[in-house]
Amino acid sequence: MSTDFDHIVIGAGISGLGSAHFAARRGRRTLVLESSDRVGGCINSQTFPELGGFWTEAGGHTCFNSYGNLLSILDDLGLTRHVQPKGKVGYLLWKGGQRASILSALHLWEAMRSIPKIFSAPKEGRSVSAYYGDVLGRRNYRDLLRHAFQAVICQPADDYPAEALFRRKPRRKDVIKAFTFSTGLSAIPATIAAQQGLEVRTGQQISVIERDGDGFRVTTGGETLSCGSLTLAVPPDVATALMPAGFDAARAAITDIGVAEIETLVLAFRTSDLGLKPIAGLIAVDEAFYSAVSRDFLADPSYRGFAFHFRPGALGEQAQIERACLALGTTPRHIAAQARVRNRLPALRTGHTARVRRLDETLAGTRLAVTGNWFLGVSIEDALTRSRSESDRLFAV
Ligand SMILES: Cc1cc2nc3c(=O)[nH]c(=O)nc-3n(C[C@H](O)[C@H](O)[C@H](O)COP(=O)(O)OP(=O)(O)OC[C@H]3O[C@@H](n4cnc5c(N)ncnc54)[C@H](O)[C@@H]3O)c2cc1C
């Protein structure tokens, strides 16, 4: 049967673009359909044209030399030689209306007593609070780690599966340990999408996918496109809604995976208007925001930028601005530019691995792939590891 495309991917975040890249490199005619007006999803280097193009990361901000699948894509696209090292700046705690050092919250003796358990304590099947409370001590978990993990995943961390955080991966010694690009991480999705051999269409909100023999039909903007293989690379609630008829067991396996909504406020200031020393960001303790991530890792001569990740509904828009300025030791009148972004991250729970196993059993032997940041973990590399294995399943000869 002839089709419009060999492969259609829904979602142009890094998972979808990675899937498209792997398929295009295997010579498959690939189309990516994205609902928003830009590619990248959670990778979003928020650029302010009114500030001469100064940017701040509103989502993902750091890649590591342990990101093997990402690096293979960067190699393919000639991007590896353009990576920029991240400057050494540290995080501070924001607690009780004051900035404090991370060490101030560490119970050193408890940590030293507990740490040997890291070699014996099981991680699989346990929650973040159970596992890390074991290996660094209950008080360290309560006063420090809990907040640090919440800062990373921008949602309550206690019930999150421990194995979905900080997976050990081999490092590539020829690449800088922690890196970005001179225009921010958005250089990655932009370059994947611009390569020859794959097509990306933005502004395409997909709501129905139908089966067409072994393949699929996707209706977009009044046009119906057919494909032999299809990859869903969208958050779990969207994947559940888009699952075609006949994939009822797959839908049932993922239907109760939650999604955390994050209200991100991006603020830029003139460097001369901020007294705060350079920081990587703030880890908030019992606050309306989980964390703030700064642009200070790649210093700009004129501006400084910060993304504050707020709990949904915790504060109104003006109150968010005032709280963020308070944490930075400044006032709203010094803001040079601002933007608001809605981020979404999966809210995984223990037992997640069994859910993924059930999904994979139902997908085996079909031409439907499902990928995203809700399989192995939320990092860019976790997402690409899933995209790679799904691409192998669909296209390996
Ligand atoms: C604040 C924050 C900081 C982070 N920091 C880091 C970091 O430093 N390092 C790191 O490795 N990871 C980090 N992450 C995690 C990482 O950035 C994300 O997990 C990853 O980028 C997600 O990619 P994805 O493609 O799976 O999902 P998404 O980026 O969510 O992409 C899904 C795409 O699908 C589109 N879509 C949704 N519905 C439809 C539809 N119906 N039709 C068509 N398209 C649709 C969306 O618009 C979106 O573009 C961070 C995440 C956040 C939010």
TrEMBL record:
Residues annotated as signal peptide: none
Classify the source by domain of life: Bacteria
GO MF annotations for this entry?
oxidoreductase activity
**Start and end of every Amine oxidase domain?**
14-149, 164-272
Pfam families, per the entry: Amino_oxidase (PF01593)
Identify this protein by name. Answer: FAD dependent oxidoreductase
Q: Which organism is it from?
A: Thiocapsa marina 5811
